[in-house]
Design a protein that fits this description.
Layout lengths: L1 H33 L3 E2 L2 H11 L15 H13 L5 H24 L3 H24 E2 L1 H17 L9 H13 L1 H20 L7 H28 L3 H20 L8 H6 L4 H8 L11 H14 L1 E3 L2 E3 L3 H14 L3 H23 L3 H29 L4 H26 L5 H53 L4 E4 L6 E2 L2 E2 L15 E3 L8 H9 L5 H6 L4 E5 L6 H9 L4 E10 L5 E10 L7
Parallel strand pairs: 1-2, 5-8, 5-9
Antiparallel strand pairs: 3-4, 6-7, 9-11, 10-11
Helix pairs in contact: 1-4, 1-5, 4-5, 4-6, 5-18, 6-7, 6-8, 6-17, 7-8, 7-9, 8-16, 8-17, 10-13, 12-21, 14-16, 15-16, 15-17, 16-17
Length: 606
């Protein structure tokens, strides 16, 4: 008898493992075969270039965006095996690994084969129906968000008696290393999940529960503090410490406060010694050209701008609380996306799931009192975070998508917990029926979203292919002219016809040194950027372009170069921007122009 039970259990484990393997293969195969994978923005490709060694020629853990311990580990992989797309592989493993962990938890919750299969199908359609773009066009902020989503879902649906939450803790720390800001933004959901689990205990106020949940919180904070300390230690040198101050000031100015208009603030700019020509460099993001644009100047602009913006109890923002509420209300009423609608539907389905059976059992008010605090607190958390985004005017897809994912994970986690609690242990077939009915409804809704999302992603994918033709033509040109050094106009290198310039993750992987750099951006004036210039024998970009040592400026054909002429003229240097070459695509379109910057003598004109 014992052997028979053991055989049946082993057979069940084998079948379950096979199902999960098939699920994982289908999960990865669909986007890989139909679309392939892209880095979303040039931010992502620049991180990849730093850790792979393509930026300076040597893999480096100083990626600025990722915390140093993680970036160092990825850079180490590039040093061991240089020609593998380790960074892209890491992002994909995080994203698909998070989904697989969620799938494993679903198979543990559902006890029947029918329930497990329906749950996995629903999960498949949910991620591809709502977040296909994020799985195909990968952005590291969203990757951090998916790690947080998985951590919260696993924690909410965990068995309180077993108390195994090491994976959730690890995922939170991992998200913190990938994108600290996203992790911190979603931390209220983590704390809420902990509060929910604690309140779900049979006996809430016990010393054992205090120890358990405080140790979980303490372990998470300790892990975050440990990796943050290692990051700070790595960047403690003066050159990196000074750059981090510059980086923080630049981030505040560009991302949160905006650059004050020159004419309206002329007295201020004259007081800090910023000319209109240098101001233009800040406007077009080519500030790496001007060494006088330093930390002190940017911090002065930040302080000046703070006085012009709204101040709500010490919190400075572009919009005040009333404007943020209005914008938030406008979104809820007029601009709901498929993901927004899925969240609304999840709230409704969860409420119906809890209240309809309660009506039959004459326990409506009891059920209502049980679910109202959970839903209300979740709505408060999400509303506060959305209002923060509207106040700071940072309502970006790479920020809002993790928010929506996390909210959806919380609601589904509540639903599954209640379903597991309400379903009798001696009626496993009832679990299957409940799962089948509920998940058929979910699959039906998400299949419709999938059809819309598929067309949208296909259009963007084609647009990126057109943009890539131009960007790859530029990179091929730089490789063919390896003796030159190319300084790229920032806005010429961001997008083409609305599609961002980026790179495919796993196609034509080339981690060799890139002999070009941007004339601005978040890495400008960093020790790595200065090292890149020094390796070519240049002191800075301004003098490099004037030298006759093979440094050229690259810009899109429609970019007017008068701003550069005016900038050098302000410094008493007359120049001429001579177009010496054109970079053409395979379809013979001019993608970029290559300029040689010549110093012109006032008397001879040469």
């Amino acid at each position: 008898m014992t052997d028979s039970r053991t055989d049946r259990k082993a057979g069940s484990v084998c079948v379950l493992t096979a199902i999960l393997i098939v699920f994982t293969l289908l999960l990865v195969a669909f986007p890989a075969i139909v679309f392939d994978f892209y880095y979303d923005l040039n931010d992502d490709t620049l991180i990849k270039d730093i850790v792979s060694g393509a930026y300076t020629g040597t893999p480096s853990g100083y990626s600025v965006q990722l915390l140093y311990p993680l970036a160092w580990l990825i850079a180490l992989l590039y040093k061991v095996v240089p020609n593998v797309a380790w960074y892209g592989l890491f992002l994909c493993v995080c994203q698909f690994g998070a989904i697989v962990l969620i799938a494993v938890r679903l198979t543990a919750i559902f006890k029947t084969a029918k329930g497990r299969i329906m749950a996995l199908i629903a999960a498949y359609f949910l991620f591809f129906g709502l977040f296909l773009r994020e799985l195909v066009i990968v952005q590291y902020s969203v990757t951090a968000g998916m790690c947080m989503v998985c951590a919260i879902f696993l924690f909410i649906t965990s068995d309180s008696k077993k108390g195994r939450n090491a994976i959730s803790l690890f995922l939170v720390v991992l998200a913190f290393m990938i994108r600290t800001e996203v992790c911190l933004m979603l931390m209220p959901f983590v704390l809420y999940a902990g509060l929910f689990k604690w309140a779900s205990e049979e006996q809430i106020v016990t010393s054992a529960n205090f120890r358990k949940y405080l140790m979980l919180l303490g372990g998470t904070l300790l892990g975050m503090l440990a990796v943050l300390s290692l990051d700070m230690l790595a960047y403690h040198a003066n050159d990196w410490s000074n750059f981090r101050d510059f980086f923080d000031a630049r981030t505040k100015l560009y991302d949160f406060y905006d650059i004050p208009d020159y004419e309206q603030n002329r007295n201020f700019y004259e007081s800090v010694g910023l000319s209109e020509e240098s101001y233009t460099l800040l406007e077009n993001y080519n500030f790496a050209l001007d060494e006088s644009i330093d930390t002190w100047l940017l911090e002065s602009m930040v302080q000046h701008q703070k006085m012009q913006l709204h101040n709500t109890f010490g919190f400075v923002s572009k919009n005040n609380i009333h404007e943020a509420v209005w914008l938030y209300k406008d979104k809820l009423l007029k601009h709901l996306t498929a993901a927004d609608l899925a969240v609304v539907a999840a709230y409704v389905i969860y409420a119906l799931f809890c209240l309809v059976p309660a009506v039959k059992n004459r326990q409506f008010w009891t059920a209502l009192r049980r679910i109202t605090p959970k839903m209300a607190l979740l709505l408060v958390i999400r509303s506060v975070l959305w209002l923060y985004l509207y106040m700071t005017d940072r309502v970006l897809a790479r920020v809002t998508t993790p928010l929506l994912m996390t909210e959806l994970a919380c609601i589904i986690g509540f639903w599954l917990n209640d379903m597991r609690r309400l379903t009798a242990a001696d009626e496993p077939e009832k679990t299957g029926v409940t799962a089948t009915t509920a998940y058929l409804l979910v699959i039906f809704m998400l299949a419709a979203a999938f059809a819309v999302n598929f067309a949208r992603v296909s259009d963007e994918y084609e647009a990126r292919a057109r943009a890539d033709e131009r960007w790859y033509a530029f990179m091929d040109y730089c490789r063919q002219n390896a003796q030159g050094y190319y300084v790229v106009d920032v806005y010429s290198a961001t997008s083409y016809e609305g599609a961002s310039y980026s790179e495919k993750m796993f196609w034509n992987v080339d981690n060799s040194y890139k002999n070009y750099d941007f004339c601005g951006g978040w890495l400008a004036k960093s020790p790595l950027a200065r090292q890149k210039l020094a390796d070519k024998g240049f002191r800075d970009m301004q003098s490099a372009l004037l030298s006759r040592a093979g440094a050229y400026f690259v810009a899109a054909p429609d970019r007017n170069m008068q701003w550069m002429v005016a900038y050098y003229a302000k410094r008493g240097i007359n120049i001429e921007c001579r177009c010496v070459d054109e970079i053409r695509t395979d379809s013979n379109e001019t993608a970029f122009l290559v300029y040689d910057i010549w110093r012109v003598d006032n008397e001879t004109g040469r």
